[in-house]
Structure formats: structure tokens, C-alpha cells
């Protein structure tokens, strides 16, 4: 497949690029600092330096791809709108380019609790995570209204570790079993498996090691 990775220089983005190349995909790694990152240079890797808010650059990067993988991040105090404005631009350019499949990283707070409301809407949700949670919620709402075939994987704490191949996933809710944390490598592994298996179309997915 021809894949584009947004946020390619981040913790999970690097894992997405490396694993996708290992699995034989052609990968476009998009970001401001892609040429200063120590990616393994292979024929299947195309480095695309660009700005996430630039419509033309994002469109040109998406055009011709089979699917989009978004590992975009940003600040956590609510002032950084990278997740929402970046996702809005990605969605717009996907539609323009005729690309319909996207997998994105969200946050555990946008998963549902047992009462049906989001975890971030519960009284005991940590207040320090609310601002960034709202950004993730807005990004989810943009995807949910987009008409695209999307999947949002929603981890809690991400560890800077490679893939083990052992993780649990639950649609719509955080897994009841598992460690409550996820290796960056396993998060990337799930996303790359899902891009071919398509088991969680238009679903939020909880994940844990």
C-alpha cells in the first residue's frame, strides 16, 4: 500500500514509518523535521517536508496514497490547536484527493465509560487532562462528521518501547484487562494491522498491553 504518515518524527510516528517499511509498504513521512530524523533510507521511503496547516502541501502529500496514518501531537494545555486544525486540513485534503481511509491516534478520555458518557465527562476524570481531551474530542467529531472511513485508536499512557505483538483492544471502551499502558511499537503495529484488516471502521478503539 501507499501510506502517508503525519507526525512521522514523533514517538509513534517513527514506529509507524519503520514498521510500514518493514512490511513492504511505500511510505511518505510528512513533517517539518523529516530530513533531520534518522530514518532508515530505503527505496520505499519518501520524505516530505511540509507544514500541517498548509493546504497545498498536505494535498500533494496525500494525493496518490491508499490511506492516511495520523500520529500528530501537540501541547496539552489547550492552547495548541495542532490536533484539531491539523485534522481539519487533513480531512479537507483527503476529500479533494479522493482518499477515504484514515487511522488516527486519539486519547483514552474520548472512550466511553460504563454509563455511556465519555471518560473525560466523568466527575473523577483528572482535570489536568481535560484541555487536551477537548482537542481530541473535537478531532473525533471532525472525523465522525467527515464521511470518511476512519478509526481512532485511544491509548492511555504510551511507553517509548518497541512492538511486542501482545496487546488487547476493545471498541468504544478502554480494555478491562491489560496494563493500562501501551508500547509505541504496539500502537503502531495495531494501526498497520487495522489499515489492511479494517475491523474497526468508524470506531474508537481502546488499547493496552
Description:
This protein has 209 residues and is an alpha/beta fold. Helices cover 31% and strands 22% of the residues. Helix 2 packs across helix 3 (82-97). The protein has a single domain (2-208), classed as NAD(P)-binding Rossmann-like Domain (Rossmann fold, 3-Layer(aba) Sandwich), CATH 3.40.50.720. The chain has an eight-stranded mixed beta sheet, sandwiched between helices. Strands 7-9 form a two-stranded parallel sheet. It has helices at residues 11-22, 55-62, 82-97, 130-144, 184-197; strands at residues 2-6, 26-31, 45-49, 67-70, 101-105, 149-154, 157-159, 168-171, 181-183, 203-208. It is globular. It has five helices and ten strands.
Spatial separation of the terminal alpha carbons: 27 Å
SSE arrangement, N to C: EHEEHEHEHEEEEHE
Uncertain spans: none
Beta-strand segment tally: 10
> What gross morphology would you assign?
globular
Helix fraction by DSSP (H/I, runs of at least 4): 25-40%
Structural class: alpha/beta
- Rg (C-alpha, Å): 16 Å
Quickly give the CATH architecture.
3-Layer(aba) Sandwich
Please indicate the percent range of residues in DSSP E strands (runs of 2 or more).
15-25%
Give the helix tally: 5
Q: Report the top-level CATH class.
A: Alpha Beta
Write the CATH homologous superfamily.
Answer: NAD(P)-binding Rossmann-like Domain
Number of domains: 1
Layout: helices, strands, pairs:
Blueprint: E1 2-6, H1 11-22, E2 26-31, E3 45-49, H2 55-62, E4 67-70, H3 82-97, E5 101-105, H4 130-144, E6 149-154, E7 157-159, E8 168-171, E9 181-183, H5 184-197, E10 203-208
Parallel strand pairs: 1-2, 1-4, 2-3, 4-5, 5-6, 6-10, 7-9
Antiparallel strand pairs: 8-10
Amino acid at each position: 500500500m501507499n501510506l502517508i504518515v503525519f507526525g512521522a518524527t514523533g514517538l509513534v510516528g517513527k514506529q509507524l514509518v519503520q514498521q510500514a517499511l518493514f512490511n513492504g509498504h511505500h511510505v511518505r513521512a510528512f513533517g517539518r523535521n523529516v530530513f533531520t530524523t534518522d530514518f532508515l533510507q530505503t527505496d520505499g521511503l519518501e520524505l516530505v517536508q511540509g507544514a500541517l496547516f498548509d493546504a497545498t502541501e498536505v494535498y500533494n502529500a496525500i494525493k496518490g496514497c491508499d490511506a492516511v496514518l495520523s500520529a500528530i501531537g501537540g501541547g496539552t494545555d489547550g492552547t495548541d490547536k495542532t490536533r484539531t486544525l491539523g485534522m481539519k486540513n487533513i480531512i479537507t485534503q483527503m476529500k479533494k484527493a479522493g482518499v477515504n481511509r484514515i487511522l488516527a491516534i486519539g486519547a483514552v478520555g474520548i472512550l466511553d465509560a460504563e454509563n455511556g458518557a465519555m471518560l473525560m465527562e466523568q466527575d473523577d476524570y483528572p482535570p489536568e487532562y481535560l484541555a487536551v481531551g477537548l482537542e481530541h474530542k473535537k478531532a473525533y467529531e471532525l472525523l465522525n462528521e467527515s464521511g470518511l472511513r476512519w478509526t481512532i485508536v485511544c491509548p492511555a499512557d504510551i511507553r517509548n518501547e518497541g512492538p511486542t505483538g501482545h496487546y488487547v483492544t476493545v471498541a468504544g471502551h478502554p480494555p478491562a484487562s491489560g496494563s493500562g499502558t501501551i508500547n509505541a511499537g504496539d500502537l503502531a503495529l495495531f494501526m498497520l494491522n487495522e489499515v489492511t484488516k479494517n475491523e474497526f471502521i468508524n470506531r474508537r478503539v481502546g488499547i493496552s498491553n
